[in-house]
Each structure stands twice: as structure tokens, then as C-alpha cells.
Amino acid sequence: MKIGFLGLGIMGSRMAANLLKAGYDIKVHNRTREKANELIKNGAEWAESPSELGAYVDVLFTMLEKPDIVEMIALGNDGFLQNMKEGSIWIDSSTVNPSFSERMNKEAEKSGVRFMDAPVSGSKQPAEDAELLFLVGGEKDDFEEVKDLFLKMGKDAIHIGSAGKGSAMKIMINQLLGQSILAFSESLNLGMAMGIDKKTGMDILLKTPVTAPIINAFRGRIENNEYEANFPLKHLQKDLHLFTETAYELGQPSPLTNTAKEVYGLAKHKNMADLDFTAVFKYLHEKE
Ligand code: NAP
Predict the structure, then answer these.
(1) Which UniProt keywords apply (predicted)?
(2) Residue 36 Cβ contacting ligand 1 at under 6 Å
(3) Which of 46, 78, 185, 191 has the highest CB neighbour count under 10 A?
(4) Active-site residues: which are they?
(5) How far does residue 206's CA lie from ligand 1's centre (Å)?
(6) Band (140; pLDDT cuts 50, 70, 90)
(7) Which CATH class is domain 168-285?
């Protein structure tokens, strides 16, 4: 099976490395070629363009920043979709909005390509350790055909429903992620302003059931003020935007998410776009 991987950022580079480790022949492409160096050293082939990669593959994974970039790389001038063989499979693991995945599914159908949206839950370390959770939309038979590939990069893969349903589940998860860390940061910052020591405040908040359990995993970053990106803040803001955009499309109110999205947007204006998303604590903390 000829596998292609397009998008070798924080997540894609690690996911592709796990496919390689599992013994698959893979060919890769990325806008910034240097990010492929390690993979090429370990046996991956390089494709000069998305279109070259499209022509090569039986299965193509994309792991790109956001919908407009996926669209450009799939359908643009040198895009891969027009070159893919009939019956081949395109799996988009980028976090995008469900209506976008539905539209890409239709575009793929026009080329006789089978499409799946398969965003992941889990960040940099789970990507490295092959511990991701794949949330998959698309045809069930197609999902079964490639499930082993997911399991080489993740601990599980769940078929949620038709095309777009993986993306739907993913934006639900990240909406909670963004809100949880923001609510926690607001509470802890006021605690500190009221004279409660940061460590004590964290210890106690994390012991109570009102704090989201995942915040335990981020505690060290906030405690030590270390915000090197595992999950860049600009991507979390993008995900909240995808949630509010979808809510608008469906006529569903999303007041809290709209507010949270703007807080992350303001943090971006303070040069925090490429820091870890947990830097929203720092944004609320700094007085100027
Ligand atoms: P990243 O490190 O910023 O990588 C983004 C990828 O998109 C890179 O391959 C980048 O190419 C490419 N890209 C961006 N703009 C481009 C353009 N104009 N033209 C061509 N390529 C472009 O992001 P990441 O953290 O790996 O995230 C990738 C996706 O996974 C995002 O949708 C994100 O929301 C999602 N995700 C991330 C995490 C996480 O914890 N990091 C977890 C789950 C899901 P270059 O290398 O050339 O910049």
C-alpha cells in the first residue's frame, strides 16, 4: 500500500514517523522541506509537490493548519485531488469544520476518491507515542479498510458516522478544552489577586470535581510559566472559531464560545499566537 503524508508540523511529523516505524513505505510533502529531513533520513521518500504526491498514493493523509489551507493544497493549482487514482483514499486529519469536511467529501467524490475526516484528540506527546484517538467520519467500510493505519498512530479509532461527523466530534471536544483552561485561568488569577498562593490555589482547584481533569496535564506549564507550544494558541482560537461558525450555520447559540474565542484572539495580539494555548493564563495574568 502506497501511503502519502502531507503536512509535517508538530502533529504530522510525529504521525508520519509512526507509520514509518511500523514498516510502511511512505512518501511525504510539506511546504517547509526541512521538516521532512528526519523522516527522509529514516527512509521516507520526498514528493516535490502535493500533485506529485496525489498521483503516487493509495492512501493520503493530510495534517494541515486550517480549512482554507487544506482547500488550497487539495484543490489549488498544484493540488493533489485531481491527480489521485480512482478508488484511492484521502484522510484529512486536520481540525476543520464539519461543513468543510462535507464539502471536501463531495469534491473527492467528483474525482472518484474516497474521503474520510479523521481529526485526532491528543497533542504532541500522544502523537509521538502513537497514543492519539482518531474520530472518523466517512463510509464504515472505508474506515475498516484503513483502521490498522490509524492504530499505528493512535490508541484507538472510532467511526462516528458519515463524512463530517469526525470533525463535528472534534470541535465539540476542543470547545470544552478552550473553555476549561480559560475558566481555570480566570479563577486562579483572581485567587492570586486575593492573596492565595499560586501552588495552593492550583492544588485545591485540582482536587475539586469542578475542575476539568485534563487540567492536571497542563499544571506544570502554568506553574512554571513554560509555554513552548504543544498545541499553539492560534490553533485553539481557530477551533473555537470553527465551533462558532458551525453554530451560526445551524442557528444554534454559542455565547460562551464566542466570548472565549475573543479572549484567545486578544492573546494573539500580545504575541502569544505561537505559544502553547495554556498561555491564556499568562494573558489574563499580565497587567500590561
Ligand atoms: P503546525 O505545527 O502549525 O503545522 C501546520 C501544518 O500546516 C504544517 O505542515 C504547515 O507547513 C502547514 N501549513 C500552514 N500554512 C500553510 C500554507 N499557507 N501552505 C502550506 N502549508 C501550510 O500545527 P499542528 O499542531 O501540527 O496542527 C495541525 C492540525 O492538527 C491543525 O488543524 C491543528 O488544529 C490540529 N491538531 C493539533 C494538535 C496539537 O496539539 N498540536 C492536536 C490535535 C489536532 P509548514 O511546516 O511549512 O509551516
Answers:
(1) NAD, Oxidoreductase
(2) no
(3) 185
(4) 170
(5) 31
(6) very high
(7) mainly alpha
